[in-house]
Amino acid sequence: MSAPKGLLAANLVCMISMVVWAAGLPANAILLPLLPPLSLSAARFGMAAAALLPLWVAVEGFGVLRGAQWLKGIAVGGMIGIGGLCVILGQSLTDAVTVAVISATMPVVAIAIEVVLDGRRLTLAIVAGLALAVVGGIIALGGGVDGLSLGLGALICFGSVLFFTFGSRLTVTAFPVLTPLGRTAVTLTGAAIGTIIIALVHAVRFLPMPDFGQIGPGESGMMMVLAVPNFGQLGPREWGALVVFAVGSLAVSQVLWIISVGKLGIGLAALHINAAPFYVMLILFAFGDPWNWQQAFGAAIVGLGVLVAQGIIPLQRKPIAV
Predict the structure, then answer these.
(1) Are 104 and 141 in contact (CB under 8 A)?
(2) Closest residue by Cα to residue 260 from 4, 11, 5
(3) Which domain holds residue 34?
(4) What is the reported pLDDT for 59?
(5) How far apart, in whole angstroms, are the C-alpha atoms of residue 103 and residue 112?
(6) pLDDT in tens, 157-204
(7) What is the Cβ-side half-sphere exposure of residue 184, based on CA atoms within 13 angstroms?
(8) Is residue 322 part of a domain?
(9) How far apart are CA 7 and CA 21, in angstroms?
(10) CA-wise closest residue to 101 among 129, 131, 142, 41
(11) Domains identified in the chain, total number
(12) 3-state helix, strand and coil shares in percent for the chain, rounded to the nearest 5
């Protein structure tokens, strides 16, 4: 069975989105020990919006700003902003393994949303593809379920999956007249407004709290949220990481992601996210880290799940006429 070119192109765009998004994870690892999660999230969304809005105007003209539904954009963007904040906060309260494993449930959440809200029928192909994508994602993570940390941090991580999945779906459905670039610019601006306000209020309210570097190993991880940011400690390497984390891993990746969600639906597009650990490994491999065959194998299973779920690889072959 040959897949339509549009379907293959949409999957390619989604894959590129995940590669660009994955590039931000090593950058986040550089920034997280230096900046409290609230400040890092606000800076990330603020820089992403500052990059996308001028680009949107340059491509489509100033008139698009008047026609945009800004209140709705703030509401939908707020969901995406909360999702982004939750993943950073969740990682600060748990560990990277917990964040990655819980994020691997996104395809399940996305398919469930489509079943409940859009009336999507669960076919054998979708169930099989979903199972392959989840199993492949766990394998690509190194099978690190044993290191899973349950509790408040894990609940916050799952909240990030819910908010980001709903927000991505609404970005497509709530702004039907806007282009993918416009949808992304409006919602990321809304996310930036929300996260910056939260960060400023928190910084003013908890101004006397100590810096992140003063928090002792025996103190609660929640103290990281209350720390006052010190951007002066960032050097050229850290500012470069912030640009990658904000402009590349968020702004560029989100535009490509929204394009693919519009073509594939949130459920099928979400299958791609479980290959992200393999893309991170590829990026690190390019900078000298060793090759990881287990992650490559896991990504191959995820890819197989994507093809099966979309019927590109049929589960049953047509009988050959004789």
Answers:
(1) yes
(2) 11
(3) 5-230+239-309
(4) 95
(5) 15
(6) 889 999 999 999 999 999 988 999 999 999 999 999 988 988 888 777
(7) 26
(8) no
(9) 21
(10) 142
(11) 1
(12) 75, 0, 25
Count of all residues that appear for the chain in the document: 322
What value does the CA radius of gyration of the chain take, rounded to a whole number of Å?
20
Average pLDDT by stretches of 10, the chain with 322 residues = 72 93 84 84 93 95 88 91 82 69 84 88 89 85 58 84 92 92 95 89 60 44 50 85 93 95 92 85 84 87 89 67 44
In 61-147, which residue ranges form alpha helices assigned H by DSSP?
A: 63-67, 70-93, 96-103, 106-113, 124-140
* Token pair listed for 44: 């990330």
**Among candidate residues 198, 160, 180, the one with its CA nearest the CA of residue 251:** 180
Query: What's the confidence (pLDDT) of residue 320?
Result: 45
Structure tokens at 39: 């400040």
Taking the C-alpha atoms of residue 130 and residue 211, their distance in angstroms, rounded to an integer, is 43
User: Residue 103 domain-assigned?
Assistant: yes
For the record, the structure tokens of 176 come out as: 């039907």
CA gap 161, 204 in Å, rounded: 29
Domain membership of residue 314 (yes or no) is: no
Instruction: Please give the model's pTM, rounded to 2 decimal places.
Output: 0.82
| Residue 275 domain flag | yes
How many other C-beta atoms can be found within 10 angstroms of the C-beta atom of residue 186? 28
